[in-house]
């Protein structure tokens, strides 16, 4: 039978009554108050084995009281509740030393389970962060789906656990990775992002680990890689599902051994980075297809976070619209808002491009239309425009190969800014095309190299040499 005295502080009488009944039935002694002053008096007198408190109290904000509680009684678990339900609320609760954060309304069964777990845990002094948190809000939304993400992120802030973020394009995966960095223990270190889909296959290892002078054609100087650039901070590996198999093998070795060598180098370099990976692909399916290493997946998938598409969190749309309009106003665009009918239309829309599509729409409305209040008819006109999003272009079945390569090269050159990529681009691009072409032919012929050579119109020995040179995994199967 559980024992212990629970101190409950909330100015809402209904909440106090519900918690009193539930905790009493569970076997706990309960003391109730509606203000922070009484709570502090109880705590400072040594009363209570656990505290459950709202954030906003009539006399004082609990975030001002919490550091005093943790300093006086560091082993006293404090559960923080809030109806504000923002990312910053969850982060501040964690930073100020709360044992757990629960958004209102909360599940009573979950609350009782958390209380039991907190009282059973060994008493360990928890570090308390007393610096004021930034008032900027990197993540927006109060939906249940986002509340769960906030709680997970808050628990991860003071750890170096590897995180895998999964979500459709446009859901804000890099924003979550940046929040993990900016509010975590590595916030004073660099945040370095690399998009695997935007780097040619032959250059991925050099981009990640750096290269020595003369390591390959065009390597005229030593160059540091992203692991070296991110030392002491966070390395964000975006679109990890597009990483080629040979680079996956080397990345796995780095994660296992904690060190790497540059391309063309021999001296091991110790690495001190937190890895956050992201993908919009089903890596389990990629593993079954032989396109992704299962051991690397388990190394990266220590803490999985699924970002919901916008269509699963439509209750966040009003907050998001206000947020993007505010951003546009700060950039010099006129202030705007949308009426209720327009908001209802936005909630019914499917948002194939997710939050990125909504942000683009809001910026378009702020820049192109003189109306201070955007109505339903104008939005209907905008949403019915046959504008092809980047996501739709990627998914188009009859995409032109030449146009696709041209778009890819545009993004590739953009990554280098004012400089040029290393020499040898012609052969690297041909190699990039060869790999998927031969892989697709082998897949279509179920690994039969004779049929694949005939399909491609090349000599069988030539195909075998290409398979060896490109290190293509030949998967044989039968119907």
From TrEMBL:
Any Pfam family the entry gives: AAA_lid_14
Top-level taxon: Bacteria
InterPro entries referenced in this protein's UniProt entry, alphabetically: AAA+_ATPase, AAA_lid_NorR, CheY-like_superfamily, Homeodomain-like_sf, HTH_Fis, P-loop_NTPase, Sig_transdc_resp-reg_receiver, Sigma_54_int
Modified residues (4-aspartylphosphate): 54
All residue ranges annotated as the Sigma-54 factor interaction domain in the record: 139-367
Main location: cytoplasm
Keywords recorded for this protein, A-Z: Activator, ATP-binding, Cytoplasm, DNA-binding, Nitrogen fixation, Nucleotide-binding, Phosphoprotein, Repressor, Transcription, Transcription regulation, Two-component regulatory system
PROSITE patterns referenced in this protein's UniProt entry, alphabetically: RESPONSE_REGULATORY, SIGMA54_INTERACT_1, SIGMA54_INTERACT_2, SIGMA54_INTERACT_3, SIGMA54_INTERACT_4
Subcellular location: Cytoplasm
Start and end residues of each Response regulatory domain: 5-119
SUPFAM superfamilies per the UniProt record, alphabetical: CheY-like (SSF52172), Homeodomain-like (SSF46689), P-loop containing nucleoside triphosphate hydrolases (SSF52540)
PANTHER family per the UniProt record, alphabetical: DNA-BINDING TRANSCRIPTIONAL REGULATOR NTRC, TRANSCRIPTIONAL REGULATORY PROTEIN
Its biological purpose: Member of the two-component regulatory system NtrB/NtrC, which controls expression of the nitrogen-regulated (ntr) genes in response to nitrogen limitation. Phosphorylated NtrC binds directly to DNA and stimulates the formation of open promoter-sigma54-RNA polymerase complexes.
Protein name: DNA-binding transcriptional regulator NtrC
Source organism (scientific name): Roseibium algae
